[in-house]
Amino acid sequence: MRRQTRHVQASGARKGTRSLGFILLVPALIYIVVFLLGPLCYNLWISVSNANGANLITGDFAPTGFQNYAAVIADDQFWNGVWLSAVFTVSCLVLQFILGYALALFFRQSFPGNGVIRALLLVGWILPPVVTGTIFKWIFDSDYGVLNFFLSQLGLIDSPIKWLTEPTTAMVAIVTANLWVGIPFNMLLLLSGLHTIDESLYEAASVDGAGRWRQFWSITSPLMRPVIISVLLLGVINTYKVFDLIYTMTKGGPVNATTTLPIYTYLETFKIFEFGHGAAASTLTLVLPLVLSWFYVRSLREEDQ
Questions:
Q1: Cis peptide before 112 (omega within 30 of 0)
Q2: pLDDT digits (tens, 9 = 90+) for 205-226
Q3: Helix (H) or strand (E) holding 296
Q4: Choosing a second label site near 209 at 20 to 30 A (CA), which of 106, 160, 179, 238?
Q5: Half-sphere exposure of 147 (CA within 13 A, CB side)
Q6: Which residues in the chain belong to E strands, given as ranges?
């Protein structure tokens, strides 16, 4: 009788816990439906219609199948955006990871002013991208930019470099500006990972005669592998979707030299007002982040196991 009573009480407690779990889940479900699934479904509907600036508000648009997707894929500017997104993402990812990792290893050491310098480096990551873009737009300005001033004072250039109005230098300028944001982000995550490595491993390796280089490849690199994978996946997602910084500095110019996929999608949607084409382009742009997000979640599960 007593055992049956305890069983009933335990069953009631489990039901109560399960009910509480569902109640706590409701706000997250509402958020996902209203702010994620709702806009995504509306975007998919617009992408298979002839919606444009003339009929979107009135709602007088009709389904057209996959014509918008075919038009976007046939557009040379779309593939130009794919190429520029790849160049921008790979350039930023490689440089910000190498420099961020080097800084993380440096700040792992204890020295006076470590915390202050680290905090100052994080300013680049904390600032809104529009502010960062405006600052670097001033720095790279060909007429009154501080970079051309210092280069001319050092005797390295005879005439001002048109950083933001030449195709090659414009890409260099936006990559440099994005590095100012990405390096502190990489450094912060990698430094957190380095602090989780037990110091006794390095002490034991030193006793066995292993040098710094040997310790890095035999201890640091294997133990940092899960963190590095997460940092690289997050780095690709964050860099691939950069819009505001590029638009503030170049607006996709000169002559589409910095029109990455997010910029191309914006111009198609809000400059030409071809909302159907813009929605199709944004859906195609969404594919890579979704795939990488899946890999990121999968890597987190493997790390937990």
A1: no
A2: 888 888 888 888 888 988 998 8
A3: helix 287-304
A4: 106
A5: 17
A6: none
